[in-house]
Amino acid sequence: MSDYKDIIRNPETLNWFKAALGMNITRDCLLDIVKEISQACYDNIRREIKQRYGVLESDICNQCHTPNVLPCDPTNICCKRKRGKCEFHDIHKPRNCLNNNLCNEICKQIVIQHRFRSQQNPNSFKGPTWINTDASKWCSEP
Protein backbone atom coordinates (compact mmCIF):
# COMPACT_ATOMS: atom_id res chain seq x y z
CA MET A 1 0.00 0.00 0.00
CA SER A 2 2.85 2.38 0.76
CA ASP A 3 4.09 1.86 -2.82
CA TYR A 4 0.86 3.36 -4.15
CA LYS A 5 1.13 6.36 -1.83
CA ASP A 6 4.64 6.97 -3.09
CA ILE A 7 3.45 6.77 -6.70
CA ILE A 8 0.62 9.23 -6.05
CA ARG A 9 2.96 11.69 -4.32
CA ASN A 10 5.36 11.59 -7.25
CA PRO A 11 5.21 15.02 -9.01
CA GLU A 12 5.14 13.38 -12.45
CA THR A 13 2.11 11.29 -11.46
CA LEU A 14 0.36 14.38 -10.12
CA ASN A 15 0.95 16.08 -13.46
CA TRP A 16 -0.68 13.13 -15.23
CA PHE A 17 -3.69 13.36 -12.90
CA LYS A 18 -3.98 17.09 -13.54
CA ALA A 19 -3.73 16.54 -17.30
CA ALA A 20 -6.44 13.85 -17.18
CA LEU A 21 -8.69 16.11 -15.12
CA GLY A 22 -8.10 18.98 -17.54
CA MET A 23 -8.94 16.74 -20.49
CA ASN A 24 -12.21 15.64 -18.87
CA ILE A 25 -13.22 19.25 -18.13
CA THR A 26 -12.35 20.30 -21.70
CA ARG A 27 -14.27 17.34 -23.13
CA ASP A 28 -17.38 18.21 -21.13
CA CYS A 29 -17.26 21.84 -22.27
CA LEU A 30 -16.64 20.95 -25.93
CA LEU A 31 -19.36 18.29 -25.88
CA ASP A 32 -22.01 20.89 -25.05
CA ILE A 33 -20.80 23.13 -27.87
CA VAL A 34 -20.67 20.26 -30.39
CA LYS A 35 -24.18 19.11 -29.42
CA GLU A 36 -25.53 22.64 -29.90
CA ILE A 37 -23.85 23.07 -33.30
CA SER A 38 -24.91 19.59 -34.44
CA GLN A 39 -28.52 20.32 -33.50
CA ALA A 40 -28.43 23.64 -35.38
CA CYS A 41 -26.98 21.91 -38.46
CA TYR A 42 -29.65 19.19 -38.25
CA ASP A 43 -32.42 21.78 -37.91
CA ASN A 44 -31.04 23.56 -40.97
CA ILE A 45 -30.97 20.28 -42.93
CA ARG A 46 -34.58 19.48 -41.99
CA ARG A 47 -35.76 22.98 -42.96
CA GLU A 48 -34.03 22.62 -46.32
CA ILE A 49 -35.64 19.22 -46.93
CA LYS A 50 -39.06 20.57 -45.97
CA GLN A 51 -38.63 23.55 -48.27
CA ARG A 52 -37.44 21.50 -51.26
CA TYR A 53 -39.45 18.29 -50.93
CA GLY A 54 -42.26 19.03 -48.48
CA VAL A 55 -41.13 16.39 -45.98
CA LEU A 56 -42.33 17.60 -42.59
CA GLU A 57 -39.81 18.15 -39.81
CA SER A 58 -41.92 15.87 -37.62
CA ASP A 59 -41.47 12.94 -40.04
CA ILE A 60 -38.82 10.52 -38.80
CA CYS A 61 -37.20 7.31 -39.93
CA ASN A 62 -35.23 4.78 -37.91
CA GLN A 63 -35.37 1.91 -40.40
CA CYS A 64 -32.53 2.93 -42.73
CA HIS A 65 -28.91 2.07 -42.08
CA THR A 66 -25.96 4.01 -43.44
CA PRO A 67 -25.22 1.49 -46.23
CA ASN A 68 -28.87 1.81 -47.36
CA VAL A 69 -28.53 5.52 -48.14
CA LEU A 70 -24.98 5.54 -49.51
CA PRO A 71 -24.25 4.33 -53.01
CA CYS A 72 -21.49 1.75 -53.28
CA ASP A 73 -18.42 3.74 -54.29
CA PRO A 74 -14.90 2.21 -54.36
CA THR A 75 -13.43 5.61 -53.45
CA ASN A 76 -15.41 5.62 -50.19
CA ILE A 77 -13.26 4.19 -47.38
CA CYS A 78 -16.28 2.27 -46.07
CA CYS A 79 -16.57 0.24 -49.28
CA LYS A 80 -13.73 -2.22 -48.74
CA ARG A 81 -13.85 -4.97 -51.31
CA LYS A 82 -12.95 -8.57 -50.65
CA ARG A 83 -13.47 -11.16 -53.35
CA GLY A 84 -15.31 -8.61 -55.49
CA LYS A 85 -17.93 -7.90 -52.80
CA CYS A 86 -18.32 -4.74 -50.76
CA GLU A 87 -18.40 -5.65 -47.06
CA PHE A 88 -20.09 -2.35 -46.18
CA HIS A 89 -23.04 -3.05 -48.50
CA ASP A 90 -23.06 -6.81 -48.01
CA ILE A 91 -25.98 -6.87 -45.54
CA HIS A 92 -27.75 -3.53 -46.13
CA LYS A 93 -28.07 -2.91 -49.86
CA PRO A 94 -28.41 0.66 -51.19
CA ARG A 95 -32.09 1.65 -51.49
CA ASN A 96 -34.35 4.65 -51.16
CA CYS A 97 -35.73 5.50 -47.74
CA LEU A 98 -39.33 4.35 -47.36
CA ASN A 99 -40.30 7.62 -45.66
CA ASN A 100 -40.32 10.02 -48.66
CA ASN A 101 -36.56 9.45 -49.19
CA LEU A 102 -35.93 11.32 -45.93
CA CYS A 103 -32.68 9.55 -45.05
CA ASN A 104 -31.37 9.85 -48.60
CA GLU A 105 -32.05 13.60 -48.53
CA ILE A 106 -30.42 13.99 -45.11
CA CYS A 107 -27.39 12.18 -46.52
CA LYS A 108 -27.26 14.52 -49.54
CA GLN A 109 -27.56 17.58 -47.29
CA ILE A 110 -24.72 16.31 -45.08
CA VAL A 111 -22.54 16.05 -48.19
CA ILE A 112 -23.54 19.51 -49.40
CA GLN A 113 -22.83 21.12 -46.02
CA HIS A 114 -19.63 19.16 -45.31
CA ARG A 115 -16.45 21.20 -45.49
CA PHE A 116 -14.48 18.43 -47.23
CA ARG A 117 -16.96 17.81 -50.04
CA SER A 118 -15.54 17.35 -53.50
CA GLN A 119 -15.10 20.71 -55.21
CA GLN A 120 -15.41 19.12 -58.67
CA ASN A 121 -18.71 17.40 -57.82
CA PRO A 122 -20.41 18.93 -54.75
CA ASN A 123 -23.04 16.17 -54.77
CA SER A 124 -20.49 13.35 -54.58
CA PHE A 125 -20.39 11.20 -51.46
CA LYS A 126 -16.62 11.51 -50.98
CA GLY A 127 -16.61 14.25 -48.34
CA PRO A 128 -17.67 12.89 -44.96
CA THR A 129 -16.31 9.78 -43.30
CA TRP A 130 -19.44 7.67 -43.22
CA ILE A 131 -18.00 4.86 -41.13
CA ASN A 132 -18.59 6.89 -37.93
CA THR A 133 -22.33 7.43 -38.42
CA ASP A 134 -25.56 5.46 -38.15
CA ALA A 135 -28.38 6.60 -40.41
CA SER A 136 -30.96 4.87 -38.20
CA LYS A 137 -30.25 7.56 -35.55
CA TRP A 138 -30.15 10.62 -37.81
CA CYS A 139 -33.72 11.67 -36.88
CA SER A 140 -33.27 11.16 -33.14
CA GLU A 141 -29.61 11.97 -32.40
CA PRO A 142 -28.21 14.63 -34.72
Provide the spatial order of strands within the biggest beta sheet.
1-2
Q: Can you write the helix and strand succession as a string?
A: HHHEEH
> Helical percent range?
40-55%
Shape: elongated
Name the beta content range.
Answer: under 5%
Summarize model confidence as the mean pLDDT: 84
What are the low-pLDDT stretches, counting only 5+ consecutive residues below 50? Answer: none
* Overall radius of gyration: 21 Å
How would you characterize this protein structure?
With 142 residues, the protein is mostly helical. The chain has one domain. Helices cover 47% and strands 3% of the residues. It has 4 helices and 2 strands. The chain has helices at residues 2-9, 11-53, 66-69, 102-113, and strands at 81-82, 85-86. It has a two-stranded antiparallel sheet. A hairpin with a 2-residue loop joins strand 1 and strand 2 (85-86). The mean pLDDT is 84.
How does the SSE layout of this entry go?
Layout: H1 2-9, H2 11-53, H3 66-69, E1 81-82, E2 85-86, H4 102-113
Antiparallel strand pairs: 1-2
Helix pairs in contact: 2-4
What keyword list fits this structure?
142 residues; mainly alpha; 4 helices; 2 strands
Short summary:
Helix content is 47%, strand content 3%.
